[in-house]
Amino acid sequence: MKRIVTVQDISCFGKCSLTVALPLISAMGVECAVIPTAVLSTHTGGFTGYTFRDLTDDIPAIENHWKSCNLKFDALYTGYLGSARQIDLMCHFFDTFGSENTLRFVDPAMADNGKMYAGFDDAFAAEMAKLCRKADIIVPNLTEATKMLHEEYVPTGYDEDYIQGLLRRLHRELGCPMPVLTGVIYGDKHGAVAYDSKKDAFISYFAPHLPYSLHGTGDTFSSVLVGALTRGLDMANALRVAVEFTHACMEVTIPDLEHHPYGVKFEECIPLLVSLCGEN
Ligand code: PXL
Questions:
Q1: Closest approach atom of ligand 1 to CA 44
Q2: Which atom of ligand 1 is nearest to the CA of 20?
Q3: pLDDT tens digits for 103-132?
């Protein structure tokens, strides 16, 4: 069995980060170890007054213990990190547990719709760019990509040339060999585009665009993408599984408007995820 370690917060209510990654990666038949970076009572989008307990000081101790146990991972997957120091610690963690057979996968979860999440600033985006430099694959949305490149966010009306240019700049400026842009919308299509810098080729997959912004879809997409890649799918097939699954989760959640801030109802789509994995 393949094994991923994912490092991100646990929001006790409102499905995102670890409460999405752990069940989805497990459902894909991949073992999932976790390092929680913080415990929050809820996620920070759509709620006020949430608690936040920082777990930064536990990270080096967990790393040292795991090193002494000689643990090995097929993929290292970071998501929402709570502070610049945690980014530094992840750079170290990548050095400790990375090897040529390890997939280093960074979701620079920190912003959406042109804005940083609560508690993050542009200095944090600059730090995140340093972790992206050490990754094999990064999966920013358009807001995160433009923040890390110090560019203006373009919400709509862009074309394929713009997206391909952005991907080339992510590769050139951040040094990541395979950047993947998420939340790309071309007309009535919504999906993701990857740039394979070694082959100078673009790989993409789209589903019909649903005009809603639901919480936790980025984490759903990333968790399934890293799970599929760790299972050995190539990028074209991994994008297909991740986009199809995220789209299905949105479709089942959209009719329940009150549920929108609580994350997507991925539980209802787990049979689909298992069958998408079984085909490959
Ligand atoms: O889905 C990204 C995410 C993860 N963790 C926390 C968040 C968010 C987005 O708002 O608030 C705590």
A1: 11
A2: 1
A3: 999 999 999 999 999 889 999 999 999 999
In CATH, which of 3.40.50.2300, 3.20.20.20, 3.50.50.60, 3.40.1190.20 is domain 3-278? 3.40.1190.20
Q: Are the C-beta atoms of residues 221 and 194 closer than 8 Å to each other?
A: no
User: Which pTM was predicted?
Assistant: 0.98
Question: Cα 253 vs. chain centroid, distance in angstroms?
Answer: 20
5 vs 180, 201, 204, CA distance in Å?
20, 29, 26
The beta-strand segments (E) located in the chain are: 3-13, 31-42, 52-54, 75-78, 103-106, 111-112, 115-116, 137-138, 178-186, 189-196, 201-208
216 in ligand 1 pocket by Cβ < 6 Å? yes
Half-sphere exposure of 137 (CA within 13 A, CB side): 27
147 lines ligand 1 (CB under 6 A): no
Q: Which atom of ligand 1 is nearest to the CA of 219?
A: 1
Residue 161 three-state SS: helix
Please state the φ and ψ torsions of residue 100, each to the nearest 5 degrees.
-70, -15
Give the β-pairing of 111-112 and 115-116.
antiparallel
Backbone angles phi, psi at 68, to 5 degrees: -65, -25
Q: Residue ranges per domain, the chain?
A: 3-278
- pLDDT of 280 above 80: no
User: In this model, does residue 197 exceed pLDDT 80?
Assistant: yes
- Print burial letters for 208-244: b (CB count within 10 Å at least 16), e (below 16): eeeeeebbbbbbbbbbbbbbbbbbebebebbbbbbbb
215-235 pLDDT, tens digit each: 999 999 999 999 999 999 999
